[in-house]
Amino acid sequence: MSLLTQGGEPALVPTCGPLPNRPKLLIVDDQAINVQALYQVFAASHQVFVATSGEQALTIARDKLPDLILLDIEMPDLDGYTVCERLKANDATRNIPVIFVTARNDSATETKGLEVGAVDFIAKPFNPTVVRARVKTHMTLKAQSDLLRQMVFIDGLTGVYNRRFFDERIAAESRRCARNNAPLALILVDVDHFKRYNDRYGHQAGDECLRRIAATLQSNLKRPADFVARYGGEEFACILPETEFSGAMALAELLEKKVRALCIDHAVSDVAEFVSASFGIAEYPIASQGSVEALISTADAQLYRAKAEGRGRACGVSLGQAPAS
Asked: Are 268 and 304 a contacting pair, CB within 8 Å?
């Protein structure tokens, strides 16, 4: 497959098509011959993306989150150093390893590249075997570090994300949705009368109950960007980027039914014979309209309202609009 468009420039789309099981590689170079040479090395084993300028590289890196970037230093708009610095300054892209592929091979160039965050240098003209080996090494290291980071953010009991990850992710998603003038919704979930459940059935049964509810919440989220975290104790939180209020309410109501459908006996609940949960929903039509703190406090207030109105239900509000239930 050719990398060249009708205008002779390298394509700015995935050149290998959707290959979800292959590592993603972004090649950044303003010279088509260099791009073509690197593409031939990696096309069979990687999902390859291409950018011909620094700004395009930053956009593709944010949108596609490649596993590694091969970056030229000399480009017409932003040089490679600036691109690398901006990648490392962005929460979403800072952990992507960058290898400079450059005709420069002096110590000053290498020192500056390492200072701005690159992990390696490959000199032009390059040896395909060497390039392939170095890319494999750094992708392996990244996979290992990704696994370690993930373990830090996973709740040991339920297997979903933990509160630390929630705090970091909601801030990042708020910034991203604000940049895109997109909505951001949050659902807070509380298992009804969970202390009574523990007292009646024991803590081991309580742990299993939480695991089943967490799995149910996770399996019913609609999109890859949505996620659930254990917020604390018997509380969970679902972050829904780019989700309007109606969609968030519909999902919360579905989740409420799915929790009941687990049919976990709860003989000491005054809500239902089975375990139920209450849901509080808050949404910004445009994320930049308010703060993360206000979104969380509003969802918490709606959760309190759901409990006050009898539990086992969803109550919510789109900030600036009247409450709904």
From this structure: no
Kindly report whether the peptide bond that precedes residue 125 is cis, defined as omega within 30 degrees of 0: yes
Residue with tokens 């109501």: 253
- Residue 154 Cα distances to 25, 161, 163, 239, angstroms: 27, 4, 9, 16
The 3-state DSSP class for residue 315 equals strand
Q: Which amino acid is at 168?
A: E
What is the 3-state secondary structure of 259-270?
HHCCCCECCCCC
- The answer to whether 298 touches 177, Cβ cutoff 8 Å, is no
User: 147: number of CA atoms within 13 Å, CB side?
Assistant: 6
CA distance 30 to 33: 9
- Extract the tokens encoding 104: 């420069």
3-state DSSP percent of the chain in helix, strand and coil, to 5? 45, 20, 35
Record the tokens describing residue 11, joined without a space: 């394509």
Residue 233 CB neighbours (<10 A): 11
pTM strictly above 0.85: no
Which active-site residues does the annotation give? Answer: 234
Q: Residue 106 corresponds to which tokens in the numbers above?
A: 């002096």
The dihedral over CA atoms of 289, 295, 299, 302, expressed in degrees to the nearest 10, equals -50
CA-nearest of 54, 53, 66, 120 to 93 is 66
pLDDT at 289: 86
| Mean pLDDT for back-to-back runs of 10 residues, the chain (325 residues) | 42 45 91 92 94 94 94 90 94 91 83 91 89 94 86 91 94 91 96 97 97 97 91 97 96 98 97 97 93 96 98 93 55
- Crossing angle (nearest 10°) for helices 245-260 and 203-219: 140
Beta bridge partners of 217: none
Rounded to the nearest 5 degrees, what angle is found at the Cα of 243, between the Cα atoms of 240 and 249? 85
Instruction: Give the ranges where 180-221 is alpha helix by DSSP (H).
Output: 194-201, 203-219
